[in-house]
Every structure is written in structure tokens, then in C-alpha cells.
Amino acid sequence: MLNNISFMINPNDKIGLIGRNGCGKTTLFNILSGDLMPDAGKVELPKECKVIQLRQFLPDDKGQNILQEAMSVFKSYNQKNTRILELEEKLTDTTLDEKEINKLLHELTDLQDQVALMFDFNPLAETEKILKGLGISQEQFKNPIGTLSGGKQMRIEIAKCLLQRPDILLLDEPTNHLDIESIIWFEQYIKEYPKCIILVSHDEEFLNNSVNRILHLENQSITDYKGSYSKYLDYKVMKDEQNQSAFTNQQKVIKEKERTITRFMAKATKTKMAQSMKKQLDKMDRVELNSHDNSMINLNFPYSGRSVKSVLKADQVDKSYGDQIVLSKIDFELERNEKVAFVGQNGKGKSTLLKALISEIPISGGHVKVGDNVTIGYYAQDQSDTLDSKLTVLETIERTAHPDYYTSSRKILGSLLFSGEDVDKKVSVLSGGEKARLALACMVANPSNLLVFDEPTNHLDIQAKKILKEAILSFEGSVVVVSHDRSFLTGMSERTIEFRGDDLKEHLGDIQYVLAKRKTDDFREFSMAEKATKVEEKKDTLSYDERKKLQRRLSYVERDIEKLESEIASIQEEMMDPAFYEKPESTAKMASIKEKKKTIEKKMEEWEVLSKDLED
Questions:
Q1: Calpha distance 285→250 (Å, rounded)
Q2: Residue 51: in which H helix or E strand, if any?
């Protein structure tokens, strides 16, 4: 899996470890952490170097509350504080004599001095800060661990790793458990972390914003590049082109020399010279072409045919689990051929609404309607929800395939990189990435006109994500996607539904439009109390449909104004170049600025009218 791997880690490196699924990233992590011994070679670490690896295990004690579990990493600190509390309690005893009091005071003072010198930060304040950054609110701190989802329990494990401040922190796919807001906070935390972090991630934007060095595992060897992920990609393309050029040129020289040798060998007078040339040719250092793993999935979702205009509609939908209200009075409609993204904080109901819309779960109130002739292809967040662990890969697809695609089952599996004996593997032994590919294969084996994806990128490598994105964009039908991967969501949808607080906020653009329109810092700062006050102050005189139309039109006008302003700025930038005025189109472009400004004035007037109507 790994062969003669060598690299050096610097104290403040932020390293992205990348490579295809199965290339050995986790194995390398286990060697660095000491959990696995290499067959050859060694890992040399400075004395007292602390290495911590994020484990994919959930806490054992489900009764502890969140704050207690996070602070459990400060074992000695907690023991001393517990003893301090005990001593303070004992000192309240009025029956103690002076000697006993002095003894207790001496121990208390000594412990307090020890605690003060243990850290250069306040453990409680730091714990609360990290938990909040990872999306766990102050109100949840006293909740038992067992009340949290697996994803939120993993956030506590991430917090525990960060709080220990190791010299080398190994994080394997940490963003799988975080929403967009938490990822943005985490990026900044990594940048400011004073020691070394090595992380495995298939989130391109997260890598670009977090690391300053790339280690690329491929074909059992490693490439080391100092710089961001995007710069590494540029470097890789350049090196491949240089390598290809050197290989081509050398092959020309080799063929020419081989022809000369063959020609000379035919002449007795030049045989000795030919033999000498052949020896020189044999000693030549040959340029090897870079050997990349070019095995790629082939993905094409079959289209079952045109559906009705209203594909899905939710009307005043409620969903509760016991006393916990997840969705309240939700309205949503998906139209034919629309591609919509659901984004927002975890736990706000994205997956719940998704499942409710396609009748995967019952609703508590309201009404959901799936349009006539709508055929659904569904990708679940957790593949164990949809895949039978007792079946083999081939049995799984054959049991779920549409009759017309039954005979193509092996071919479809091959296109998702299941070949030969792979098809006879039990689902129970598949990795997360293999289960993801099997779930996609089952979708390919069933024509649909509505694709529903719940966090589809969690177990896919970067190349597979790009292919999935292309397949979704080329799909003729409707699509709803829940995801926190900004690179994957960019350009994916023309409409984004943001789950914020207790509301669904509609944006007429993709995730980048959403982030640009609203400062990312206020994702978690959104004040429900302030919103409630505004709602109380304003009496809604419009019907829901009327208000929805006005809001949608207002969003369109805002987007038009932003687009026009951007176009004007672009032309004005061109005008800074003297060569611009020599171009034949310069006059028309300058004239267009005036027209665009007039259009903006009209749009602004419309915006004012629409805004006033909504306020009134």
C-alpha cells in the first residue's frame, strides 16, 4: 500500500493529505500515530512530541453531559478542581480548630497555584468557545451525550482533539460531521492553530482555505508540495506536461539512435561503433511517464420521462419527535426540471424535510403531495438505512434494479468500479466509499425524473465528486440536494433553500450567491428574538402566496441590479487600458454604460415599491 514513503513535518505546517479512496491515507495516519508499525523504515519524532488522531468512535458514557465530556480531556485539571471544591466546602465547617483550618488552607492555596500554572488559557472558556464554533449551542451544554445524533457526538470528539493542543493533530475527514457555518469557523481555527495539523479531506474549498502544504499519495508513493490545494493542481498539470514533453523528446532521440545502430550493425566496418552506441543507449536514464490512477466512475442517471409541472409540494408541514419540534408550518414547492439545494445548520430539519417530501418518514401535520408521473431516485445520508448488509453487491443491485436494467447489473457495477470478485463482496464488509458507489449504482439501475440526495459527498473522493456533480447537472429531470460541500454546491442550483432558525429562507442563486449576499459571520448570530419582535410589530396583510410572489420578485430585482453593477464595473476596468479605445466595440460598450445605469435606476424604483409593499 505504501512504498518507501519519506517526508518531514515542520512545527507549524497545515498539511492536506490527499489521494483516491483506498490509496493508504488512513494507513499512513495509523503509522504516524503509532497504532501501526511500518514493515520497513521508521517514524522519528522529537522527545515529548504529542500526536493525537481523531477517532471515528463515539463516547462510551452517554449519560455525561456535553460540557463534561468535552472537558474530560483535562483529567488532572478536573481532579484538582474537584479537590478545591471539596476543601472550600470543608472550610465552611465551624467546628474546625485553627490547626485543621491552616492545614486545609495550605492545601487549597497550593492546589490553586498549581491550577493557575497548568495552562496558558482558561480550559472552561476555551471548551465553550470550541463547542460553539463547532455548532453546539450554550443551551445544549448540559444535555446528555445520548440525546445527540452521531454527527454531533463526533463534533464533541473533534473538540476533545482540539482542546488537547497536540504537537501533531491528525484529522480524517473532519468536515463530514460539520455544516457550512462550522466549516467556515473551523477553517479559521486551523489557520490560527500554533502547531501542526495534518488533515484528510475531499472538500476542495476547505483544503484551499486551511492548508499551506499538500502531500499527495498515489501509486504507493508521495508527492510533497508547499502551497495551497489549487496551486498544487496547477503545479501538477505543469509537471505532467513537462514530463510528457521530456518523454516525447527522449523517445525521438532513442528511436533515431536505434535506427543508426541497426544501420551500422549491417556494416562490418561500423559494428564496433554500433556496439558502443548501444552500450551508451542502454545506460541512458529513461524518462518515465507519470503513472496516475485513472480509474474513474462512469455515472449517468437514466431519465424516466417528463413529469407534471409541480413535482413536489409541501403545505404547512409539521414534524415532531415526541416533544421536539423539527419542522413547523413548512411550505415548499419543487417544479419540473428545477435543481434546488438545501443548506444550513445541522439539526434544523434539512434531512427531515427531504425524507418527508418523498414519504420516507410520516409527517405530524400538514400535507405533502408528489406529482403524477414522478419517479424518485433517493440517496440516503446513511447507506445502512437503504442497503441490506447480508446481501452481496450483485444481489443488492439485482433486487432493486428496474426490470429493463436487470440484465445490465454487472455492467452498471463495473461503471462504478465494482469488477471481478468485487461483486460477490457482502455489503457488511464494504468501506464507506464502496457503499456510496453501490448506492449510486442502484440509482443508475432505476430510471427517474426526480433525484433526491442527502449528503452524497461524504464518502466520495474529489474525482468522484466532480463526476457526480457533472451527472446531476446533465440530468434532465428535477433534483433536490442536501449538502455542506461548497465546491460541490457551487453552480449546482438556481435556487437555494437555507434552513435558519425556525424558518426556510429562499435564495435565487447557488451557495456562493448565498454566502456573498449575507456575511457568513451572522449565520450563527441570527437573532430569533429580534425576528419575533419584528413579526409582532408588523401585521401581515398579504396572503402567503402574494407575499411569496413579492419576495421572489424582490430577489430577482436585487440580482438584476447586482449583475448590472458588475457589468458596468467590468467595462470601466477595461477603459483603464489605453488600448481599449482602439477596439471597434469600445464605442458601443461605453454607450451601454449609460443604458445600464438607466436600467438600474428603474430597477431601484421597482425595488423601493416592492420593499414598501412587503413592509406595509
A1: 10
A2: strand 51-53
* DSSP 8-class letter at 448: B
- Provide the 10 A C-beta neighbour count for residue 292: 11
Asked if residue 265 is part of any domain, the answer here is no
Crossing angle (nearest 10°) for helices 432-444 and 462-474: 20
Q: Which three cell numbers stand for residue 344?
A: 444550513
Exposed, middle or buried, 272 (CB in 10 Å: 0-12/13-18/19+)?
Answer: exposed
Instruction: List pLDDT tens digits, range 126-139.
Output: 999 999 999 888 88
The single-letter code of the amino acid at 587 is T
Domain final residue, candidates 105, 129, 159: 159
Q: Cite the beta strand spans of 417-528 per DSSP E.
A: 450-454, 478-482, 495-500, 503-507
Per the structure block, which three cell numbers stand in for 522? 451572522
**Helix (H) or strand (E) segment spanning residue 125:** helix 123-133
Report pLDDT digits (tens) over 357-379.
Answer: 999 999 999 999 999 999 999 99
Whether residue 270 is contained in a domain is answered as: no
Is residue 441 within 8 Å of 297, Cβ to Cβ?
no
Please tell me whether the overall predicted TM-score, pTM, comes out greater than 0.90 for this model. Answer: no
Instruction: Give yes or no: residues 108 and 250 share one domain.
Output: no
Residue type, 253: V
pLDDT exceeds 70 at position 544: no
Whole-angstrom Cα distance, residue 331 to residue 272?
89
Q: Same structural domain for residues 322 and 381?
A: yes
What whole-number distance in Å separates Cα of residue 358 and Cα of residue 340? 15
CB 298 within 8 Å of CB 440: no
Is the domain of 471 the same as that of 608?
Answer: no
* Placement of cell 474537584 in the chain: 82
Task: List strands edge to edge, sheet with 495-500.
Answer: 376-379, 450-454, 478-482, 339-344, 495-500, 503-507
Is 353 in the same domain as 222? no
- Say yes or no: 577 and 490 in one domain: no
In a domain, 502, yes or no: yes
Question: Same structural domain for residues 570 and 517?
Answer: no
153 with 176, same domain?
no
Residues 462 and 316 grouped into a single domain: yes
Residues 303/306/309/314 CA torsion (nearest 10 deg):
-40
Task: Judge whether 522 lies within some domain.
Answer: yes
Q: List alpha helices for 445-525, DSSP H.
A: 462-474, 486-489, 511-517
Measured CA distances, 511 to 207, 208, 212, 562 (Å): 17, 17, 25, 16
The 10s digit of each residue's pLDDT in 282-330 is 888 887 776 666 678 899 999 999 999 999 999 999 999 888 888 999 9
Q: How many CA atoms lie within 13 A of 361 on its CB side?
A: 19
Count of beta carbons in the 10 Å neighbourhood of residue 362: 9
Q: Number of folded domains in the chain?
A: 4
**Which of 112, 140, 159 finishes a domain?**
159
Q: The domain spanning residue 217 has which CATH number?
A: 3.40.50.300
β strands within 248-349, DSSP E: 310-321, 324-335, 339-344
| 406 in Cβ contact with 398 (< 8 Å) | yes
Contact criterion met (CB below 8 Å) for 55 and 37: no
Range of the domain at 478: 310-527
